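User:
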Amino acid sequence: MKLRHLLLILTLGISTSLPAQQKCEYTVKGKVFDRKTNEPLPFVTVQLQNTTTGTNTDLDGSFTISNLCSKEVDLIFSHLGYKSFTHHHDAHHGEMKIFLSADEIMLDNLIVETDKITGDLSTITTSKLSGKDYEKFGSASFADAVSNITGVNMLSTGQNIAKPIIHGLHSNRVLIVNSGVRHEFQNWGTDHAPEIDPSLYNSLEVIKGAGTVRYGPDALGGVILINPPELELNKPLNGEVGAKYRTNGNAYENNIKLQRGFNRLSIQGQASFVKQGDLSAPDYLLSNTGKEELSYAFSGRYHLPEIDFQVDYSRFKQDLGILRGSITRNLNDLATAIEREVPSPTSDFTYELNNPRQQVKHDFLKVSGIINRNGQNINLKYGYQKNFRREFDVRRGTLNARPSINLELTTHSFDADWKKSSSNGLSSVIGSQFLIQQNRNIPGTSTAHFVPNYELYRGGLYLIESFERAQNTFELGARYDYQYISIVGRDQAQDLFRDELSFQNFTLTLGYNRKISREWNFSTNIGSAWRPPNVAELYAFGKHESSIEFGLWRYEFDENNEISTDNVLKAEDREISPEKGFKWIGSLTHFSSKFDTEITFFVNYIENFIVSRPRGITNTVRGAFPFYTFEQSDAMLFGADYSVKYNHTDRISSTVRGNYLWSKDLSNDAFFVGQPPGRWGYEMNIEIPTLKGSVSNLSVNANYTFTQFQAPQVVTVRSFVDGNVSVTPSTDAFDFLPPPDGYLLVDLYWRTEFKKFTGTFRIHNLLNTSYRSYTNTLRYFADDIGRNISISLDYRF
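Assistant: Predicted structure:
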């Protein structure tokens, strides 16, 4: 009896000491495509690294590997005639799409892998610039790069300062999201460009709908997402070193990027430097248009099976000149400067930067964590940004060395969202965003502050529900925001003024997506958006770059209908309401191996639209300038974008794209100044196989910009100087010059790849066309730049 008990005890002890049976319940699914044709690839080998477990894709390019014992696997994709690809996959990701590139073409392999619960609205029209297209344009300015997306134009101040325009809206009405965090900078000026180096990023994505529900206020026109390089695990040391030279401005650029991925850790560092001298129009030099830029970034990722941590830091520094011929001494000189063909003064070429000029610096830090568990996703982000802006005017004596505007903007942001999906096609996202911001004027400018000091606090809560059934997707999004701002400034007599403002708003969006067939897709979205007035629109006072502006609460008309700027108004003196937009957008897309097309229509109605209107010219101790006042009215904008690509053969393709915008000030029955005119473009792309292991790509791009026929009346500066015109509150909208003529720009681009080396050759404005852009605020004084030849060489390892 005792022996039986002993055997039973030994049996139980042995069984309990054995390891518990491992759960082998995980499944990996995906689909493999040809990167160039987007056609499914059958018979691709998909294998778990360092194992014999694997499968092949079926005739539809799909594969499934079941009964996996680990949440994390490394998959190797291989197929005869294609580049092999290794990818680290987590179980919390949904079905992946793998795009393999043929051995002889330049494209790298690509994976599109989203969470099972996406979080962003999928029914809003988006366009992306990535891969070889981003390489082609990404080394220019941020705005120049993104303006190559159909429906996006560029607002510029001279030759170095530019920001994007989406469907006729720019500045505070276009939200920039940098690595998942709102990019906060002094975005109230038309001549304040985002402090972003496009060479540090991998792709740009434009959301053309009202993106307020997901991203918060200021997205009436759309949202631009800037995506950094992915930090891959289990990746040997790799990197890139490059150099570029551009003939116009004798500019040179150097860049370096290094990345290393371990089992749980991935790190990356990159840097870029640019130095450029004076640029040239086709017929003359543009004095004081040089620039110098330095940017660098560091990122680190630590990965656990259900948790990801990441830290990103970057710094962007820029010193740039503004056309010297845009500054004049008196009213007659201003009229002459606008009338003359060649700006004055025009000096010999130099790298030296003189006044007027800008110095900007932007520090960016993001700490983020993602928790994936039980079909749920928690995303936490903290962002810190420090923005410095110094602007130097042409001033007398020792004052010339002092900045006329010296601002420091500090921003703390906190983002959190919870995402969940269910098996019945329903997914939910609940999120919150909080922002604390402080802006201060640094003493020592010896000028009246153009904008006052302020502290801003903003909080928002949002909900997004998505339901998928068969080929249909339905979406609903709602959001509530509250903003409080405390103002401290000085009036014209240098007396302190204070104010406290608060704004709140509820926004809503509805969307529908229909997958009509394998090749055709239709999506539509209607949503509301809002934007509280920024500090400059309320309190701007005095000279800023090449003009003088007065905010909504910094001017009034006296009994003689003349503008008075002696008092600082408040809400009871002039009621100001936030902008509220209602935007509908619809898009029809077709993708096949032979023919791709996308057609987008939109209508955007905006209440309480804030616009800066020309009011005349004035003479100050710092020179003569046009002056503007901010006003509110209702606006309507509608139009269309289209893009059609046709593959003539496997190696030759043509793309036609264009956009049209109609916009009007409904309250005053007038057109706005500076809205982008229609644009049409054609591109032919040819892939040329050359030496063994080498391939080349040649493209010719022709873009025609039409004359803007939606323009207000013209009242010349000379008519003000001669006393032939006066401005009253009832004066219709006007501009100082008519819109410039339409123009054709032709670009040539050639890229070749041999082993680890890549060389590019590009000619911008091949025909050396003299032109002026209607969306360039310095078009009154000079032409845009002429022919520009750039040569680059990159080594990748």
